[in-house]
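Design a sequence for this backbone.
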């Protein structure tokens, strides 16, 4: 699932991990906040550091409902891993996805 803010490149849903929240809980919360999607389960794949930011990447198996952009997100859609290079996706995200391929 990729999200895009107005006039921005495609990115993965995400945000800060709140106090007393695990990265997994933050990923599930951010997915709902940005796309309206809820998942039964997410599987941890990897972690990537970019300066002072830590990216946690999870794999989702089954979503309920169709994605709908919410809050600051203008658009959201599924993009196949093989098609990421054809899209305007943030460079750190491309790097992370290559590591997981």
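Sequence:
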């Amino acid at each position: 699932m990729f999200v895009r803010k107005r006039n921005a490149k495609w990115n993965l849903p995400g945000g800060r991990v709140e106090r007393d929240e695990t990265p997994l809980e933050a990923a599930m919360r951010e997915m709902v906040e940005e796309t309206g999607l809820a998942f039964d389960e997410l599987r941890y794949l990897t972690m990537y550091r970019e300066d002072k930011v830590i990216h946690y990447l999870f794999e989702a198996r089954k979503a309920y409902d169709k994605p709908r952009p919410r809050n600051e997100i203008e658009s959201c859609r599924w993009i196949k891993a093989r098609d990421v290079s054809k899209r305007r996706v943030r460079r750190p995200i491309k790097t992370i996805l290559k590591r997981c391929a």
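The CA atoms of residues 10 and 26 lie 20 Å apart.
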